[in-house]
Amino acid sequence: MIVVMRPGATAEDVKRVEYRLEELGFKTHPIYGQEKTVIGAIGDKKSLSSEAIITLPGVEKIVPIMRPYKRVGRELKQEKTIVQVGDVAIGGDEIVVMAGPCAVESMEQMLEAAQAVKKAGARILRGGAFKPRTSPYAFQGLEDEGLAYLVEARAVTGLPIVTEAVDPRDVALVARYADMILIGARNMQNFRLLKEVGMTGKPILLKRGLAATIEEWLMAAEYIMDAGNSQIVLCERGIRTYETATRNTVDLSAVPVVQENSHLPVIVDPSHGTGLWKLVTPMARAAVAVGADGLMVEVHPSPATALCDGPQSLNPENFAALMEEVEKIAIGMGKRVRDNRN
Amino acid sequence: MIVVMRPGATAEDVKRVEYRLEELGFKTHPIYGQEKTVIGAIGDKKSLSSEAIITLPGVEKIVPIMRPYKRVGRELKQEKTIVQVGDVAIGGDEIVVMAGPCAVESMEQMLEAAQAVKKAGARILRGGAFKPRTSPYAFQGLEDEGLAYLVEARAVTGLPIVTEAVDPRDVALVARYADMILIGARNMQNFRLLKEVGMTGKPILLKRGLAATIEEWLMAAEYIMDAGNSQIVLCERGIRTYETATRNTVDLSAVPVVQENSHLPVIVDPSHGTGLWKLVTPMARAAVAVGADGLMVEVHPSPATALCDGPQSLNPENFAALMEEVEKIAIGMGKRVRDNRN
Amino acid sequence: MIVVMRPGATAEDVKRVEYRLEELGFKTHPIYGQEKTVIGAIGDKKSLSSEAIITLPGVEKIVPIMRPYKRVGRELKQEKTIVQVGDVAIGGDEIVVMAGPCAVESMEQMLEAAQAVKKAGARILRGGAFKPRTSPYAFQGLEDEGLAYLVEARAVTGLPIVTEAVDPRDVALVARYADMILIGARNMQNFRLLKEVGMTGKPILLKRGLAATIEEWLMAAEYIMDAGNSQIVLCERGIRTYETATRNTVDLSAVPVVQENSHLPVIVDPSHGTGLWKLVTPMARAAVAVGADGLMVEVHPSPATALCDGPQSLNPENFAALMEEVEKIAIGMGKRVRDNRN
Amino acid sequence: MIVVMRPGATAEDVKRVEYRLEELGFKTHPIYGQEKTVIGAIGDKKSLSSEAIITLPGVEKIVPIMRPYKRVGRELKQEKTIVQVGDVAIGGDEIVVMAGPCAVESMEQMLEAAQAVKKAGARILRGGAFKPRTSPYAFQGLEDEGLAYLVEARAVTGLPIVTEAVDPRDVALVARYADMILIGARNMQNFRLLKEVGMTGKPILLKRGLAATIEEWLMAAEYIMDAGNSQIVLCERGIRTYETATRNTVDLSAVPVVQENSHLPVIVDPSHGTGLWKLVTPMARAAVAVGADGLMVEVHPSPATALCDGPQSLNPENFAALMEEVEKIAIGMGKRVRDNRN
Description:
The structure is a homotetramer of 342-residue chains.
Chain A: E1 2-5, H1 11-23, E2 27-32, E3 37-42, H2 47-50, E4 59-63, E5 83-85, E6 88-90, E7 96-100, H3 107-120, E8 124-126, H4 144-157, E9 161-164, H5 171-177, E10 180-183, H6 191-198, E11 204-207, H7 214-226, E12 232-236, H8 254-261, E13 266-268, H9 270-274, H10 277-290, E14 294-298, H11 316-332
Parallel strand pairs in A: 7-8, 7-14, 8-9, 9-10, 10-11, 11-12, 12-13
Antiparallel strand pairs in A: 1-3, 1-4, 2-3, 5-6
Helix pairs in contact in A: 3-4, 3-11, 6-7, 10-11
């Protein structure tokens, strides 16, 4: 931590800060510049309590030096984490595509979607049984019934399933049926939910919050790891900006930033990221080219009748075309997609 | 709902949209312009399912006409809601100040803070027992013990208490002790938590999410009202922007926007809103001048040793000064603050 | 400047950075922590060239310590600047209200607006002769003719006039007629224009760019001061955020932040800041309460027929009411508005 | 245009709006819903003046239907524009890479950079002679001398040159020497500059403003086309968001959005977009995969001594590696890069 003193700070002000830092367990190293004094503080105390130094007289600002995360960082673990979901490995040379409808609506819809995405080469099936919706009057999901349909779709296709948990009280239920648990963007800082899924041992797909910094997102993953679960895949799904042409703005540079700072795999969701089905395929290609470990794509047998997120869902033909295009980019990256073909 | 067709849309495209809208229960009114056709659709169906119309050929965009909220809106209830917390009424001519530490740390700290804020004129005591923190290594609150200290502070000062619930499983416990339940910014779209506090019948203080639109914020309140609880106070606490000089950017124009669209009272939290104690008093004055129904201010007996949010906390003397300044603005607004004086 | 080295940085990496810093004229002070080394660098070299240090091996980040501005800062000049526009002093105990139409449309409109705002207590008359417009098909201003009408309105009312310059080639013309030159938000970083108005010696009203940080805004003022002109008033006019309920989000906390860091006066424009006339008066009250030195308000004799910004313009009656309300808040602040009454 | 009336609007309110719209030359089509009335208004009048309708009693909001741009839109011109810069065509099957240093610093630096980027396959040489800088104390460019070095580098390498104009008074000079004129992000809404370059007939590279919507960006291009110049290439260079891990957030979805709405070619600048050289190559790959017509990359012979933007510049070896990687993605897109090889 570096404490920057104001230009007019007195020798006494500097002393007071040094004294307080030492009281908190830091060693101090003042550097006297022409206009300002800065104090280097070395120690492993929690940064939070020491932030209060900013309220002492003469202090201008505090500059943290250490990253706030430990377990998710590259510093303690150099090699990349491979997350295993059933027989699918995320984080290696295969670009893993997860696909399926936003919400589970019926057995028929789920089976139709599952077979279509499998045929096109998806490796994991998605579908929401518990839906967090902005409006209390919107379809909230089939809940237990939806889980049953997902399980049936898995039995038929052999695809592992990923589905969302929205309440700590449902985690045990979701963990019983799902192969991977999704934490949605709105719950990225629902810390109780993070702790709960951290205790399941199941692979977790952690979406970035809609206005979360990359650091906050990694801290959310740190909660899950701190609860004992290191099987985490991160998912960039667009952030909120002033631009209204798209539902969100996909921050693809987050992929290499995460990869430099963390050993966890990271995938991209171009469906929520753009909100418009026509943009899903171009952004899926870009996600693969930037180096993402996978994709999550909304596919519905009939987007025009979908109960949720119809405007951003692909129909099966468009999804098959997406897979064709994505494969060509994967080849350019020296990776592969759809290895279950043949 | 208005459906805007693309310039090149054919008569058949228009027919298809009309047909689908009628199927969904809407009456349609096409208007043929020189370059574009637009279709007015009248009906009270849920907007979500009809959004899928955008995937039909020839459709450019959908423009919703109805507001998505009902119960929180001025349209069904013209008169302003007064929320009663113990003997304090929020939403009337008194500007209600809630104050206290970010986190409950000890009985001594809590009592000292409670007596200081009461003396200066605060009407409700705040203090966090359950703390949502970005880092799993930061102080997470004293939980049950913290609630006990709050109850003691209430007994000593007579001030009703407001404290946060972060997990649906804790709501019953918090509701047993608190006079008002706080839903924090990170949980604004934790819909299960909203439903749970909606069932308690306790007054709720609902903070705006850190990147929530005003409409999403009102929709979160709608969840609580839909669960049967209309005793809701909204709290603007700053939104996330690109500016880094402050922790958040307080959106004071949200206060009159909420007041025009909703009957619920709205207060401002300049402590979280700015993150810097020096800015708390000027922004508290501005909040009163813009027409807020109250303030929430972090006050700590010794900000430099606070376990949470020290940099944005006022000490008791500064809080007393804030109250003096705020009172002068309240007079200019024809309102009062600190009516428990004398 | 502080150079933070990565955890794995070698002794050689640190040496290389120290060597390069010394070459650039800095004295270096390394501090060796358990996980990271940081290097304090003292010197008064331009920060820009030294930023390139970040490309050296082992460097994680650079933390600037010195503020980038000099002349606009409080450090070199403690006392607040008073900017004199005709007989009006901005930056003292009077809250100076500038008002008038967005665009000069006709002699009649200009005289009617000028007399109305004078009667209500405005001290400076605004009106745009050169208009920067998002669309090339929108009304672009009356240019020279508009300046002539402004001059006539000044002659009739005695109010000094403020009007915008949008092109370095027009600055001499505008400076000949105007009492104060406005630099609009879109031109805040039009550095050639800043230099040109810096050479006129006229008082300058510098609006904040629509996505400018406070630091960038102060740096724009630094350009004007560096060109020899210290008669600058800053104007907060709302920043761009994700919220769509208002045209922009007024960042009122920018007022005390500017006042702490700079000696220049700062005013608020609630008309552009909100884009909605109903919000202008509440935000004007808040601006005064937060400590602004003045206001800029759009007033049009007939907003419904305005060629520019009608939706955010007040009619004369609403402006008179605004002045009444603002005066009450000014009294609460120990200031005055409308001292030309009597 | 659609005028949405408030729920309580009277028949008289609706009449008044209809009357005013008709006065403005619109035909009106009211649609009476259960709670709200909406009025469709057909006509080709400028939208700006009609916006003022919002100030009439009973009006809730105005929804524009027509896009504000004409000449840049796909509606009037279906086929994509090919912009010719010397012998290089932008907008076809070749992905055109423009590369070179941020600022022209010396003849030696410019020649070294030019030869390096040519060797690696760049088709156009960039270099700034006039530099808009946030600080008046930062290097402002070599101006005329810089142009001379660019001309020399063109003579030696045969690469056409693109360089920035920042002042309407310099446009003639820049147009005399440059093959393509760059309008920087800060000048995207410097409308006088846009008009001036619109009159040169030279190809223009128009960067997106740092907080500009896609629509505002297209409107800036409309200014240039309206001045008679249709040789425009758009350049996405990152937008301002709350995320601080990168200098800006590259909005790659802007590429397909522009391509759907406009016939103009669009390229991406991953150097300014990210601000960090390590992210330039991944984002360049992603830009090609999303469908961009080209790239603009900062390359400096020695980034650690660059006078401008060193942290985001590639050295020649890294740029050569970027070109190798980008070529593989281009192949996956059925396009080519570096066709001047062999």
